[in-house]
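Structure (tokenized):
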């Protein structure tokens, strides 16, 4: 079964050493940060700019030439990215004139949106700064390395291993999503059969599909008063339906 569509965005700085895994907090979906990031990275030119900046710092004229986009347009896009806290700018001395304004990618996050006929999920996680090694210390260690070609080969092999592992995790996630969609399809059919009332179906579907089952979260997501949700949940409990889901 097709598991639907998954959109995955990463904006992370490349580091050369694996860090111990940590649990990164998931940002609540009512947080305006999600809308700000989606608006910023929704533009294809801005994503092309980010692809350049995560590899190396650039100044606007460089980006204009690399991307075949006018410098004026590049500046407008950089302004949006900077206001969204996705990039920052620094002035660097130039041998041929006044200091140049360079741009560097700054944000570390993972954004996943799963969409199919049976489910919708959005998840935004920020990665803490201490997870990545500072570029200055990396550069100094490379300067002192005796065999840079050997180091580069080691890093390439290391990156290939990590890319393969990420691919395996993605395929595993797709399989789990496919099974989840299959289960949700039949769960929705059962709910349609057992509940004639629209609001009861809405509340029961939320309880079946979501992890955060509190009156506050349900009221916010379902756009219903807490008192109304409480009344519906009592009806579902009397029908024995809540026992079916938890």
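Design, position by position:
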């Amino acid at each position: 079964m097709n598991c639907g569509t998954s959109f995955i965005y990463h904006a992370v700085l490349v580091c050369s050493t694996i860090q111990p895994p940590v649990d990164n907090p998931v940002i609540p979906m009512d947080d305006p940060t999600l809308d700000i990031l989606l608006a910023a990275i929704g533009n294809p030119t801005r994503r092309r700019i980010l692809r350049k900046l995560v590899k190396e710092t650039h100044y606007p004229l460089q980006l204009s030439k690399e991307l075949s986009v006018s410098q004026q347009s590049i500046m407008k896009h950089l302004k949006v990215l900077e206001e969204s806290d996705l990039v920052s700018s620094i002035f660097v001395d130039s041998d041929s004139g006044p200091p140049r304004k360079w741009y560097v990618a700054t944000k570390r996050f993972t954004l996943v949106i799963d969409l199919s006929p049976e489910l919708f999920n959005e998840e935004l996680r920020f990665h803490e700064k201490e997870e990545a090694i500072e570029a200055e210390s990396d550069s100094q260690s490379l300067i002192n390395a005796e065999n840079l070609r050997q180091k580069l080969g080691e890093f390439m092999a290391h990156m290939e291993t990590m890319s393969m592992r990420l691919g395996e995790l993605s395929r595993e996630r797709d399989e789990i999503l496919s099974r989840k969609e299959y289960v949700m399809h039949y769960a929705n059919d059962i709910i349609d059969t057992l509940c004639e009332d629209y609001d009861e179906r809405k509340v029961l579907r939320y309880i079946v599909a979501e992890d955060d089952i509190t009156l506050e979260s349900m009221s916010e997501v379902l756009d219903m008063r807490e008192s109304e949700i409480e009344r519906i949940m009592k009806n579902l409990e009397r029908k024995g339906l809540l026992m079916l889901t938890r």
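Reviewer-requested clarification: The domain at 195-245 is CATH 1.10.10 (Arc Repressor Mutant, subunit A). The beta strands are 5-11, 87-94, 97-105, 109-115, 120-126.
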